[in-house]
Structure formats: structure tokens, C-alpha cells
From TrEMBL:
Homodimer. One of its GO terms (cellular component) is cytosol. Catalyzes the condensation of pantoate with beta-alanine in an ATP-dependent reaction via a pantoyl-adenylate intermediate. Keywords: ATP-binding, Cytoplasm, Ligase, Nucleotide-binding, Pantothenate biosynthesis. Its EC number is 6.3.2.1. Pathway: Cofactor biosynthesis; (R)-pantothenate biosynthesis; (R)-pantothenate from (R)-pantoate and beta-alanine: step 1/1. It is an enzyme of class 6 (ligase). The gene is panC. (R)-pantoate binds at residues 60, 152. This is Pantothenate synthetase. The reaction proceeds by a bi uni uni bi ping pong mechanism. Beta-alanine binds at residue 60. It is found in: Cytoplasm.
Length: 278
């Protein structure tokens, strides 16, 4: 079922809650793939009702980013959601989500000034604003996010904690193509040659994981291994290679406790991200 109006969604959810149903929520920007499908299926397995939002959120794109060209296909998305067992697809229009004279923002400091936050100023303010609005509208028991956007998960968890939002954030593993490329809505932009070159992301991370498993503790050494591998690929340009504390996202010099190894790499013009937590 497709719902476009906030009012309609709210009354549906109120009716569910009166019946005692639990509600799971999967926020997306559409152009859904198996990664999103796995989040929806997980939500369906853990809740009575599941709402999937499909909304290309303008406030999280920078002026030179791909908001206008971001892939949109609501019919295909609706079919995927319904087949995966979702109860409702919420596809609001921008005007209903954002008032022309809106004057409220949501911003999480510290965690957002590193990794993707450092490279995409204002991005996480947009993410936090839209996710807090959705959590207010949907009031879910649980909300599902993919580990592929590791920083987003850390930032949303912090926001939910700091604002006492009554929701459990569930993180789901990265879904990969058979050859290792992390699934992403942006993969469709890659030419055949770039698609092959993009494997350098997962390949370099596998090398790093092997080294850490072999008890290499130096962050500098691991970072160099990743950089060396990526540099071998002529179509790749490193945006960042970082190894940080997996919760605070603060820099570490040695691997003593749980770390996030995160990379962002341009393949041609397409910026791809990948990561693992060790
Ligand atoms: O991860 C995404 O697709 C987006 O950042 C989200 C969480 C749907 C907010 O627009």
C-alpha cells in the first residue's frame, strides 16, 4: 500500500497501535536493492507492521551533489517492498516534509566532523533532520539501518540517545554482490570498466582485515596497506581511508578495541564507500 500524506500515515499507525501491533520502520531514499530488501525482511521478521519510507531527502545533498539525478523509480520500489512483506510504503512529497519557512535543524556535533561528515559538510544535519521527522511521524518500536553507512548509524544512535527518542536502532550487515562489491544505489552509474575497478574497495579492505587478524596493531601500517592497494587501480581516487573507534569515531593509533575501518573512493566520478568493524 502506498501512502503519500502524513495525516493518512499517522491515522493508520494509531489504529495499528490501538490493536497492540508493533511497528518497524525502514527509512530509504528509494532505488531499492537487495541491501534495502534485507533491512525490510529483518523488520518484517521482528514486527507486526512495517513502514518503509521512500524519500530522496533534499537537505542531505550538497549543492554540487547528485540530488537531481539521484535514481528514482517508485513503482519498482513499491513492488520490492510489498514482495518483501512491508505493510506500507510512505512516499511523501517534499512540500509536506519541509515548510518553506522551516527554522528548526537537528545537528549532532563531533561524530559528524570526521569521515563522510568532513567531506560532505551539512550532510548529517540533513540526515538527522529527516530521520528525526520520520521517527516523530512513524513512532516505530524499531528502526533499521544498514552498516554500509557506518557513520550514519553511529550518528543516528547518538541523536536518538541524546534526544530520548523512544526507538531501538537495529543495524543490519552490508549486503554484497557475489564478487564483493557492496550494494549501493549509486552502483548503477558505473560503466563496465568502472564496475571492475570498484572491486578495489572490498579488495583493499579484505587485505586490511587479514593483517588485523594476523595481529597487526598499527593503524598507520593498516592504512598504508589499504592506500597502496587502491593506488594500484588507475580509475580510483582516494577520498579518505580512516581507522577510528567504532563508537566515538575518534582517531586511534593502535588497534586495542573495536575499530571501524572506513573508506571512500571515487571511481571515475562516482563516490563509493565501504567499511568493516573489527
Ligand atoms: O541511508 C539513507 O538512505 C538516508 O540517509 C536516509 C537514512 C533514508 C535518510 O534520508
Amino acid at each position: 500500500m502506498l501512502v503519500k500524506e502524513i495525516k493518512e500515515l499517522r491515522s493508520l499507525i494509531k489504529a495499528w497501535k490501538r490493536e497492540g501491533f508493533t511497528v518497524g520502520f525502514v527509512p530509504t531514499m528509494g532505488s531499492l536493492h537487495e541491501g534495502h530488501e534485507s533491512l525490510i525482511k529483518k523488520a518484517v521478521s521482528e514486527n507486526d507492521k512495517v513502514v518503509v519510507s521512500v524519500f530522496v531527502n533534499p537537505t542531505q545533498f550538497g549543492p554540487n551533489e547528485d540530488y537531481d539525478s539521484y535514481p528514482r523509480d517508485i513503482d519498482k520500489d513499491l513492488t520490492l517492498c510489498m514482495n518483501a512483506g512491508a505493510s506500507v510504503v510512505f512516499n511523501p512529497i517534499s512540500k509536506e516534509m519541509y515548510f518553506d519557512n522551516k527554522s528548526t535543524g537537528v545537528s549532532v556535533s563531533g561524530l559528524t566532523s570526521v569521515l563522510c561528515g568532513a567531506k560532505r559538510p551539512g550532510h548529517f544535519d540533513g540526515v538527522c533532520l529527516v530521520v528525526s521527522k520520520f521517527l516523530n511521524i512513524v513512532t516505530p518500536d524499531k528502526a533499521y539501518f544498514g552498516q554500509k553507512d557506518a557513520q550514519q548509524v553511529a550518528v543516528i544512535k547518538r541523536m536518538v540517545r541524546d534526544l530520548n527518542i523512544d526507538v531501538e536502532i537495529v543495524t543490519c550487515p552490508i549486503i554484497r554482490e557475489e564478487d564483493g562489491l557492496a550494494k549501493s544505489s549509486r552502483n548503477i552509474y558505473l560503466s563496465d570498466e568502472e564496475r571492475k575497478a570498484a572491486l578495489v574497495l572490498s579488495r583493499s579492505l579484505s587485505l586490511a582485515r587479514k593483517e588485523i587478524k594476523n595481529r597487526e596493531k598499527s593503524v598507520g601500517k593498516i592504512r598504508n596497506i589499504i592506500k597502496k592497494e587502491i593506488t594500484k587501480e588507475p580509475l580510483a581516487k582516494i577520498d579518505y581511508v580512516e581507522i577510528v573507534d567504532s563508537e566515538s569515531l575518534e582517531n586511534v593509533e593502535n588497534i586495542e578495541k573495536s575499530v571501524l575501518v572506513a573508506i571512500a573512493v571515487f571511481i571515475g566520478k562516482i563516490r563509493l564507500i565501504d567499511n568493516f568493524i573489527f
